[in-house]
Amino acid sequence: MPRSFLILLAAILAGCAKHESGSELVIRIGSVAPLTGPQSHLGKDNDNGVRLAASELNASNLVIGGKKARIEILSEDDQADPRTATIVAQKFVDEGVNGVIGDLNSGTSIPASKIYSDAGIPQISPSATAIAYTSQGFATAFRVITNDRQQGEALAKFAVDDLKAKSIAVIDDRTAYGQGLADEFVKDARALGANIVDREYTNDHATDFTAILTSIKGKHPDLIFYGGMDAQSGPMMRQLRNLGSQSLFLGADGSKSPEFIRLAGQSAEGAYASSPGMPVDKMPGGPEFMKKFEAKYGKIQIYSPYSYDATMVMVEAMKKAGSAEPSKYLPWLSKVEWNGVTGPISFDAKGDIKRSTVTLYRVANGAWKAIN
Amino acid sequence: MEIFLQQLVNGIVLGSIYSLVALGYTLVYGIMGLINFAHGDVVMIGAMVTLTVIRLLSGSGLPGPLVVLCGLGAAIPFCMMTGYLMERIAYRPLRNAPRLAPLITAIGVSILLQNVAMLIWGREYLSFPQLLPAHAFPFLGASISFIQILIVAGSGIMMACLSILIRKTRLGNAMRAASQNAEVATLMGVEVNSVISITFMLGSALAAVAGMMVSAYYGIAHYDMGFLLGLKAFTAAVLGGIGNMEGAMLGGLLLGIIESMGAGYLGTLTNGAMGSNYQDVFAFFVLILVLIFRPSGLLGERVGERP
Amino acid sequence: MKTLAKYAIPAAILCILPFLIDAAFGKTWVRIVDFALLYVMLALGLNIVVGFAGLLDLGYVAFFAVGAYLYALLASPHFGLHLPFWLVLPLGAFAAGLFGILLGAPTLRLRGDYLAIVTLGFGEIIRIFLNNLNAPYNITGGPQGIDLIDPVRLGPWSFGHSVYAYYFLFLFFVLFTAFVSTRLQHSRIGRAWIAIREDEIAAEAMGIDTRNVKLLAFAMGASFGGLSGGLFAGFEGFVSPESFNLMESVMILCMVVLGGMGHIRGVIFGAILLSVLPEALRYVGPLQQSVFGRIYIDPSSLRMLLFGLALILVMLMRPAGLWPSPTRKRELSAKGETARHENTNVYDAGR
Q: Best of B35, B89, B96, B244 to disrupt the C interface by mutation (most C CBs within 10 Å)?
């Protein structure tokens, strides 16, 4: 009895995994992001971007290889945890998805990319910025966002050329994100002729920065750069000003949030930070996207325009290839050119976006304002 | 020189907070021989409750320091209750169990408190509004802020009060008796159970004050802020000699200064090979070194070893 | 005939299990079971230290990290070394064992609660060093970790990323560790550990060299952790310090405590239960969404909440675990002489 039951079960599951239903081509795209936990607001935002793209494509009478096609989105939660990300990747491979949009973080995208690469399934991350993600030599890993090297370069250029900083102190939070970015920044700032007078460290749970800030204050830098998240940079900014230091403060995308201003209070005024890409209202298709998105899902967090574009690019490659088979459309992904909401998208040999943009912001009157 | 002085000031302020929390460990350990792992999380609860009250009163137009005092006034009884319940539910039933048992429940209580706090107050970092005057006084080139003075003075006063309580009052006598020998104390008419409850509540009250101080000083509160703070305070207690009140104060101050100086000067000393990235290691190294070379701590009797 | 049935039937079930799971739930669950097997090894290793010898180790994940990083360093493009698996794995276990002795030697004189904090500190120190040893010389890759680690390879045959191959490999090592644990438990050493756990002074008086015997417990437990770590690195292909945080140590401890300290079957049961639990909890989020229309408790925080509660409740209600060993249960609920002795111990503790 149990054996026949299992065979039956297997047969049913096998039936489910079949892609075609009638004459319609069903394209299954996996969307993975942290849907629960501290980053769930960002994760849902990414997922909604993918869903918006899918619903528009489905409404647009999508034809691939002469066949009418319909897109189906499978959403999974990676809890921002590397091990869970590999389990989700395995799940997508099992289910035979045609492509994957995700993960949100670098720490999850990297281990998962190995599994997608083995299975030959293209993966486009809308928001992973670590250099390692596309430098592993996997043909299946792409991203539509500026990576840390590009961002570090832009930040260093801004600090040295625009803010005229000659002596710079650098702090990072010893996470993959913060340390990677800070190292790139140091390299580029040195190349531009700035003097790195101090390198200090903290961690992503720290609340006390007085010791390292006192050390930095003793070296009188023109500017302090912090690679890390707002939960640290906010209080850090406040403690810096309380110590009586007037050095300029520059953060990266981890600091460019309302949270930073809330935590730093009055001290936030005049702080600088960067963000990959550009503000939604400055994107070529931004205002229109915002209207469509907000009518359906509410406010845009950060990366939904990117996950939207990632989906669009993937389907565009399928159209060009005339097939949704990963092996058929993968070669087209590196050739395709697409005018997305976030700007023109095309990939280099590694899978990074060719035309990268970084926008710089400054806190004025309690809000982030784009400068340039 | 002024940087050295500033680091010293930072260290003393941090050390005062460690001392205050270390006293909680020492009090409980002195009476029960139990390391209350969850003590650091009581500090966190203190900070959270203070903040909640401050937010409620933020629109009332009361002067800042008064609002903070109100917050503290709510946090102290709340933490005392947490301490009481903790002892009643998780430790008392295990008083006669093997040593491993209360230790494991203590870890459980710590995890539980953190996660309950996360459910109540969320995962975000909460910002402590600038209610206390922020101006700083110059002192030989270093600057000392009002709140730093408040922390050092406040914890000094609290410790002095505690010291008097333990040495001069009936309750203090009972506590000392219970810590010498619980069975004999019972025979002499001491209510050991209530003495233990009161000890927990006293430690928790100190933790509440420390919680307010930490979040006001750093401008932030978070559900996992207590754990590492607790571990370091414990280290301070061991450094000074656990079970010994003066030891806890001395250990706290020393550890605060060691951490500040270490983070400030390790980079220069090792020529950049090691730096402030090893800040959190110092406490653990101190702990291991003390336990190896002087398990009794600086001022204590030999208690670190197995009986 | 009877012994044949006793061994053949479980063996057959274990052999076809991954295929059944794949057929019923997909390869994803085979991967989850693979991870569960790694945790079983970890829990068995910790059980030697906590369950047998009664030494509370809160930094056990450090040994897991040592094994994983050694494998990663010796079999990846990081240093350009690609040593074979059969060499690296024992080396990792050995190195972890060495670290166990390194930690144990100075701290074993300490009483249980001190030992707990020192081991916790040790675990954090190892993690902090792994996280920072990328400068001035890049040894561990720092926060970026080490990627592109060689998969396990036996002769010409690479395991690649086949979840089945790893299942059988891990199963082999789990059976090995379980076998060693069982044999140890009933050996002279095992009895010495239990004697120390129950009463160290008496054990010493009976002529047990408590110091060496305790060191051996630490070294054995640690080398199991190292073994598991090496397998983890080969399986995942990527290691970074964030996988070896304090909460992992607590989770492994939970497995041992919940299953039943000192009881091998109980510990295996606890490890499987707790490593599958998070996967089951994944469905709690959508469930809350559909029932209440919003998510009140995140599955990840629910997991930690349950861990905390489990530690307290198990200690209060079932101190010998969900599946206690018959003897341990008797000892822990002892009312007579043993309990009295423990009682005085708590109050007199070296004062």
A: B96
